[in-house]
Amino acid sequence: MKSDIIKSLTNNFETNSHTTEEGIEFWLARDLQHLLDYSKWDNFQSVISKAKTACELSGEDVLDHFADVGKMVVIGSNTEKEIPDIMLTRFACYLIAQNGDSRKEKISFAQRYFAVQTRKAELIEQRMLEFERVQAREKLKQTEKELSQVISDQTGGNQNFALIRSKGDQALFGRSTQQMKQKWQIKSKPLADFMPAILLKAKDFATEITIFNAKENQMKSEGEISKEHITNNTSVRNTLLSRGIVPENLPPEEDVNKVDRKLKSDERKITRNPDKLK
Predict the structure, then answer these.
(1) By percentage, how much of the chain surpasses pLDDT 70?
(2) What value, to the nearest 5°, has the Cα angle with vertex 209 and ends 135 and 255?
């Protein structure tokens, strides 16, 4: 397909997109019908029907991607009439293209176009989740550094930090730090580097409470601060359990340091070539 045709079709698809007040991107089926070279609405409806079936089979809620709406059109003498239309997400457009007649040049283009765009959206979402986890890990590092300083200032022994932190792990996971490392097959790196974001945030929250109460109540011994830290991690664990989340049963995630390096590498690539997203 010639580059000028590709640019023209890309522009047509993008200029026909709309955005809801909630920021959700969508296309109207009546517009997409013409973009895909279907002259008759009835014929296009049969393609939409197949796409809805594919959506359901994929495990997605059809109503989340195909929303029935009305559209006002002029039928003559400035008279308007409401006709049925459908709001389509990008995923819905992708499914419609996949179920269309690939012999049509525009359908063939749309199949590739929406596949690429859907993949881009997935990659962006994945990067956002990875960035959130990296940020959560960095936040926990800073919080634990503050706890270490509080312990040193108030007990006179910074060596107590590792002991207090390990007691917190025991309370959060129901098993020791070393047992969790063995479960997750971690050798020489910190357990937190492999925690999912939700556990990093849970651990950070418990640690923040420990810092607050240790300062507020002027705790002077390892025993006092340990008891406080155990209580806070136990409370956080109970909250997670009440929501069906068992900390020790969650699978480990990729080393957060590797994720951070990958994100920084991707950022450098995008800075050099903003249009290139791999």
Answers:
(1) 87
(2) 30
> Nearest 5°: phi and psi at 61?
-80, 120
pTM: 0.60
Query: How distant, in Å, are the alpha carbons of 51, 93, 263 from that of 9?
Result: 21, 14, 32
Among the listed residues 70, 81, 89, the one whose alpha carbon sits nearest the alpha carbon of residue 27: 89
Average pLDDT for residues 92-110, to the nearest whole number? 84
* Res 277: pLDDT: 45
Domain boundaries, the chain: 3-101, 126-272
The phi and psi torsions of 56 (rounded to 5 degrees) equal -65, -40
Q: Identify the pLDDT of residue 278.
A: 45
- Angle CA 64–68–73, to nearest 5: 140
Is 134 within 8 Å of 260 (Cβ atoms)?
yes
Q: Which of 81-95, 118-132, 182-196, 208-222 has the lowest mean pLDDT?
A: 118-132
- In this structure, the dihedral spanned by the alpha carbons of residues 104, 109, 113 and 114, taken in order and rounded to 10 degrees, is 10
1 band by pLDDT with thresholds 50, 70 and 90: very low
* Cα–Cα dist 235/210, whole Å: 12
Strand 25-28 to 79-88 pairing: antiparallel
Instruction: Determine contact, residues 168/207, Cβ cutoff 8 Å.
Output: yes
- CA atoms 80, 83, 89, 95: torsion sign: negative
How many Cα atoms occupy the beta-carbon half-sphere of 260 within 13 Å? Answer: 11
Q: What does the block give as tokens for 237?
A: 């664990």
- For the cut 50, the answer to whether the pLDDT of residue 14 exceeds it is yes
